[in-house]
Amino acid sequence: MSYSFQTDSTTLWDPALRVGQLYLGQAEVAARLVEVPSGLTPRRDGYCDLDPKEFATFVERLLRFYNRGRHATLSHLLRGILLISLVLLKRAGGQLLSTDGQALDALLTEAAGLEHTMNV
């Protein structure tokens, strides 16, 4: 069984059920932490709709929060959520409004390395 993330009718990621549920749960907690909606809407049929505009805002805020990095353990917890989110944002055709230079470049490089492991 899988848990598909999609925008309109395009599948962005089709992970195993538990993987998808774990990411969704983590993203929802992170969204509350940065005080914006995640842009992810779970459905009863095992799919999760992704609103590209809301999701881009979520990723942007999460990136800013992550870059402040005042707590090493929190940064490590957020890193995985952020990397997967960057891949999903790219696949949804979204883009970040602001860039943080080398820090963002390093995260994008790491996300690109992760992307091939994320089944579509």
Short description:
The protein has four helices and four strands; from the N terminus they run E-E-H-E-E-H-H-H.
Explain what the structure shows.
By secondary structure, this protein is of the alpha+beta class. It has 4 helices and 4 strands; from the N terminus they run ββαββααα. The chain has helices at 17-34, 52-68, 72-91, 101-115, and strands at 4-7, 10-13, 40-42, 47-50. A hairpin with a 2-residue loop joins β1 (4-7) and β2. It is globular.
Keywords, separated by commas or semicolons:
120 residues, alpha+beta, four-stranded mixed sheet, 4 helices, 4 strands, 12% strand
Low-pLDDT stretches are: none
The total of beta strands comes to 4
What average pLDDT do the residues reach?
Answer: 91
> Quick one: overall form?
globular
Q: In what order do the strands lie side by side in the largest sheet?
A: 2-1-4-3
Percent strand? 5-15%
Write the layout of secondary structure elements.
Elements: E1 4-7, E2 10-13, H1 17-34, E3 40-42, E4 47-50, H2 52-68, H3 72-91, H4 101-115
Parallel strand pairs: 1-4
Antiparallel strand pairs: 1-2, 3-4
Helix pairs in contact: 1-3, 2-3, 3-4
